[in-house]
Amino acid sequence: MAAEELCYLSAIDLAEAIRTRKVSPVEVVDAVLDRIDRLNPRLNAYCTILHEPAREQAKAAEAALMKQEDLGPLHGVPVSIKDLTLTRGVRTTRGSKIYEHFIPDEDAPVVESLKAAGAIIIGKTNTPEFGWKGVTDNPLFGATRNPWNLDRTPGGSSGGAGAAVAAGLGPLALGTDGGGSIRIPSSFCGIFGLKPSFGRVPQYPAGWGEGLSHAGPMTRTVRDAALMLNVMARPDDRDRFSLPADGTDYLQALDTGIEGLRVAWSVNLGYAVVDPEVEEITSEAVNAFSELGCQVEAVDPGFESPERIFSIFYLAGIAALLWRAVEEWGPHLDPGLLEVIEEGKKLTAIDVMEAVFQRQAFWETVRRFFLRYDLLVTPTVAVPPFALGLNDVEIIAGQEVSPLIGWIPFTYPFNLTGQPAANVPCGWTADGLPVGLQIVGRRYADVTVLRAAAAFESVRPWADKWPAL
Fold first, then answer.
1. Which residue from 411, 383, 385 is spatially nearest to 398, judged by alpha carbons?
2. 157, 128 in Cβ contact below 8 A?
3. Whole-angstrom Cα distance, residue 160 to residue 47?
4. φ and ψ of 400, to 5 deg
């Protein structure tokens, strides 16, 4: 099989080809590393590439095949890890000069799970410093570029992961999401991304997004994400919020249709400003759910914008994490991050506790809404991918929106509630840039979200569309 063809295969197809010895893990890893070496200088998706360790792992995987050992479901399949996540013996910088030379002595629980399933860690993907914003650049490695247009951002904070998957630099990527950081780059890069239910995939150690952050799969297909979630969804006592295992086979669950599901469609949640082209593309795409037999209703959910609630948790979390480092490291930090730290320092304990109470009230509103619907569908991001070098968009459709998070009004609310939410690619702009549709499920209804995403993919496939690189 040609090396380029290997890079275009899904993880499920790669795993099957390896198990049946149609291709060797060494061939697969060599093909992906060669493509990374060729394209990463232009994309900057990877900040650390594990050439020799990955090749050694591939040789060991090949030997296990020859010995007919028991194989994990991801045996020999390459996976990338976001550079916020601990990897034993592999530099984990968090995109910051502070951790430029930090080499952890332990793996995060999710990395342990991926390794135990036979996956081969191919490298670490780029992230903004401490994952503080929805685009991907940092003082240590610079900016990651969008494979669909190198002058545009891939989004963030899992932007390196999104760009890598979209460009065929590995079929599987681990992302994290504290306010949209899986779904934003998945939308901007034209791939699938799932923010599982809070606690479904253990998170350790805690970062600024304690109580908000989720880890999840970023892939080209829904089936690959389901396979990855099968591996990653398990409890771990290092994360006191991690959920008990419930025996769900997420891949097998995709075979059930979604006919009869009650789907609420909201183009703006009643308060968001949306780019007209995004509105047009997503409004057309939601018709797929009617074609699939769902009961679709256009709604105003009646939510008040939770922007201030989220902003307080965000500002306070980042300030608490980093304020002590400013004296020594301030000149080396992203200037925008410094501003966020200073804003966070102005908050009081009363501000934070009020946000705690308001978060509960917001959840009660959302909970009651979902008594009437199985799914809520929205645009994923309010705008198409924008210019590299910007941290945000402050004017949409001629209207001013809040800095930093005014352009992502659909993602962060569901970090506050902890519900499962996914991005599915649903179209491209006239300029050839991807647009995504967000599917939100009830609390703990990861299976329903994945089923709906798989059904959408079956009638509106996207995985055969690749950026020209």
1. 383
2. yes
3. 8
4. -75, 140
Residues 6+ apart with CB under 8 A from 108: 85, 86, 87, 203, 204, 205
Bridge-based pairing of strands 120-125 and 46-49 is antiparallel
Selecting among 157, 158, 242, 311, the annotated active-site residue is 157
Domain boundaries, the chain: 3-308+347-459
- CATH architecture entry for 3-308+347-459: Alpha-Beta Complex (3.90)
Considering 113, 181, 242, 266, which one is annotated as catalytic? 181
Is 113 one of the catalytic residues?
A: no
Tell me, what amino acid is at 432? G
Contact (Cβ atoms closer than 8 angstroms) between residue 408 and residue 436: no
Is the pLDDT assigned to residue 347 strictly greater than 80? yes
Would residue 115 show up in a list of annotated catalytic residues for this protein? no
- Alpha-carbon gap, residue 435 to 433, rounded angstroms: 7
pLDDT, tens digit, 9 for 90 and up, residues 238-247: 999 999 999 9
* Tens-place pLDDT, residues 278-335: 999 999 999 999 999 999 999 999 999 999 999 999 999 999 999 999 999 999 999 9
The DSSP annotation for 191-254 comes to -EEEEPSTTSS---S--TTTTT-EEEEEESSHHHHHHHHHHH----TTSTTPPPP----HHHHT
- Give the side-chain half-sphere CA count within 13 A for 250: 29
Judge whether 181 counts as a catalytic residue.
Answer: yes
Residue 408 C-alpha from the chain's centroid: 14
If DSSP codes are grouped into helix, strand and coil, which group holds residue 174? strand
What is the identity of the amino acid at 193?
G
